[in-house]
Amino acid sequence: MQEDSVVLVDKPAGITSFGVVARVRRILSQQLGKKAKVGHTGTLDPFATGLMIIVTGKECRNAGMYSKLDKVYEATIRLGQKSSTGDPEGELITISDKIPTLDEVNAALSQFVGEIEQRPPIYSAIKINGQRAYKLARQGVEVEVPTRVVSIFSNDLIDYTYPDIRIRAHVGSGTYIRTLAEDIGEFLGTGAYCSQLRRTKVADYSVEGALQIEA
């Protein structure tokens, strides 16, 4: 690992993005014999796994450039329930026992391709009046996150075995897969949340070339 570089890390579940940065900073600081400057280029939720681009030293000034790149995710959308956070870490509420057909699932996926309007989750890092939305939500403050237009280039079905829909989504910067899962559940009339999420690519960077955190 070098002082001014890009490091690809395969984040495991159960650790925050800041936790990954802290581990890389500790290791690099030990190697350099001084405190290293380390940052990331886009968070992954604690439950999510996959590719994180870590920047060190002078490369930190390019973090914004990397964060604007397209991304590819593989996600499992669980039908029939909603989550207060849009993921398995929130409070789950049963909505419906309706079992959509494969044609209905494909129709739902096709609805969310192109430029679409999306409302980011209240439990997100978006800033509302200078504060992170998730911090306000945890304090019990009512948060109204504004909608925004995002780009979904493709939204392909990998497998459908009720209650789980597995998809591969190629999306533009700023797209929330948790919100996409909820929107698909709304369209199907079943409710849904994102039960598993893995980022496999950021532009031409692939998780296949990433370091395991243990390494």
Overview of this protein structure:
This protein folds into 2 domains: 6-68 and 205-212, no CATH class; 71-202, Pseudouridine synthase (2-Layer Sandwich), CATH 3.30.2350. It has 5 helices and 14 strands. The protein has helices at 17-32, 63-67, 102-111, 133-138, 177-188, and strands spanning 6-11, 38-40, 49-56, 71-79, 81-83, 92-94, 114-118, 127-128, 131-132, 148-161, 164-171, 192-202, 205-206, 211-212. The strands form 3 sheets. Strands 1, 2, 3, 4, 7, 10, 11, 12, 13 and 14 form a 10-stranded mixed beta sheet that branches. Strands 5-6 form a two-stranded antiparallel ribbon. Strand 2 and strand 3 form a beta hairpin. The protein is elongated, with a radius of gyration of 18 Å. The chain starts with 5 loop residues before the first strand and ends with a strand.
Topology readout:
Elements: E1 6-11, H1 17-32, E2 38-40, E3 49-56, H2 63-67, E4 71-79, E5 81-83, E6 92-94, H3 102-111, E7 114-118, E8 127-128, E9 131-132, H4 133-138, E10 148-161, E11 164-171, H5 177-188, E12 192-202, E13 205-206, E14 211-212
Parallel strand pairs: 1-14, 3-12
Antiparallel strand pairs: 1-3, 2-3, 4-11, 4-12, 5-6, 7-10, 8-9, 10-11, 12-13
